[in-house]
Design goal:
- The chain is an alpha+beta fold.
- It has one domain.
- It is about 45% helix and about 15% strand.
- The protein contains eight helices and six strands, in the order E-H-E-H-E-H-E-E-H-E-H-H-H-H.
- It has a four-stranded mixed sheet with strand order 1-2-6-3, with helices on one face. A two-stranded antiparallel sheet has the order 4-5.
- Helix 1 runs parallel beside helix 2, helix 2 crosses helix 8 and helix 4 packs across helix 8.
- It starts with 6 loop residues before the first strand and ends with a helix.
Amino acid sequence: MHGPAHYVKIDLEGMDEIVLREIFEAGVCPDFISAEAHTITPFCLLVSNGYSAFNLVDGKTVHQRYADTRIATLTGAQSYSFPKHSAGPYGLDLLTPWRRADAFLYLLATHGLGWKDVHASRLIPAEMWMSETMRFGVKTNLLGILRSLRRSLHLTTADDASSSAESTLTTHLHDLVPSVVRHIRRRFDGHYRTRSRSRS
């Protein structure tokens, strides 16, 4: 009735991944989409469904970060201050750079999961750089995210809690994360191809 969705905002207090799975299985893939990252799964679903550029909005600081911000409208740019507890802007109105999936995973590890909106786009080109600070300054939080990722994908590792395994993983995070992102995409691509064939 109104044409394809341009932007979809999902905020269901931890149930976002259910909605993401349903809309993607229904073939709905808007140009812009955002969901809360209480777990790593929403990010995994966005990567596996073809989104290539990502951004992050911290729900606790939206009213500070986006006070008196220039926002694009149909009648031209206008100044607007987003109130406390609001969703904030999206798309090109975000003040932070858009990143590739591998670089964004480091960013998410830095900020942690929780009241964070993961924004994804099919239209905006992602920046290709990743600073040394992003590579090496996120070890502790990223370990927790990777454990959550393994649980969500039903992966198993020997002696997951051992300190030696954690030490080895920490040492090689900058090499591991890109391969993890590739694994996410292959895993979910295979899942949706199987689901699609079973329905046809």
